[in-house]
Design goal:
two-stranded antiparallel ribbon, elongated
Length: about 240
């Protein structure tokens, strides 16, 4: 079914408000609106899949398990063409393509309108659900919901506009190259039986590196040498053409 709880909408005031023991707004959770819709504080939504088993082709740590308490029910499209938040509209509040369960910290980022997390979620949902085959009755219901949801913007454009970057400096690049060179030199000194200087840190690495098997040290030396030969001041970090 395209909409899981078509009689339910979210009312942030339904649990009421108190101040110093005085009831400012009475608890109205579960009571009907004038249109007959059930007022909810999202508790009915967040528990929807609790009884369902999760299936995953690639993530064994969640395959065949059930949803944990660390996940939060989120709306992918909050704002929509109606001008009213999706959670206040029954055909969007529990519209399957508009629901996702996310770790709590990620869920907060999904609330940022036009941000990369929200845009990525919209693109994924659109690609998964927009053209899925439905019965005629289900299609009529789904089309009413889709009519309120704008097609997602390009994630590539959002990333170009929204992603923040670290600004590297010549000193930063030089330090990274120097650190790499010091490890290569240390491996070469060990190979000829020379002691490592006390300035080579951290001390546990200085003490333990000579104990690593010769074949493993040789492999590490070859790998780090490849890095050293392939870099210059502009190639040590990935440079992306972005706006200042």
């Amino acid at each position: 079914m395209p909409v899981l709880l078509p009689w339910v909408l979210r009312d942030p005031e339904c649990r009421g408000r108190k101040r110093k023991g005085e009831v400012l707004v009475p608890d109205q959770w579960g009571s009907p609106t004038k249109q007959g819709h059930l007022r909810d504080d999202n508790s009915l939504v967040k528990g929807l899949p609790k009884s369902l088993r999760i299936t995953s082709k690639t993530k064994s740590f969640i395959h065949d398990r059930h949803l944990g308490n660390e996940f939060v029910a989120s709306h992918i499209w909050r704002e929509n063409l109606s001008g009213v938040l999706a959670s206040r509209i029954p055909i969007l509040n529990t519209f399957v393509p508009n629901l996702v369960w996310l770790p709590s910290q990620v869920a907060k980022l999904s609330d940022r309108e036009g941000g990369p997390i929200q845009t990525a979620l919209k693109e994924i949902s659109w690609s998964l659900y927009r053209r899925v085959p439905l019965t005629e009755e289900a299609r009529q219901i789904a089309d009413r919901s889709w009519a309120l949801l704008p097609e997602p913007a390009s994630l590539q454009q959002v990333l170009e506009d929204e992603v923040n970057w670290f600004v590297t400096t010549p000193r930063f690049i030089s330090t990274r190259k120097s650190k790499l060179t010091s490890v290569i030199n240390a491996l070469e000194r060990i190979a000829v039986g020379a002691e490592l200087p006390q300035t080579f840190e951290p001390s546990r690495y200085r003490i333990g590196l000579p104990q690593v098997a010769r074949a493993e040290r040789d492999r590490l030396h070859a790998d780090l040498s490849l890095h050293a030969n392939g870099i210059n001041s502009r190639q040590l970090v990935v440079e992306v053409d972005h706006k200042n």
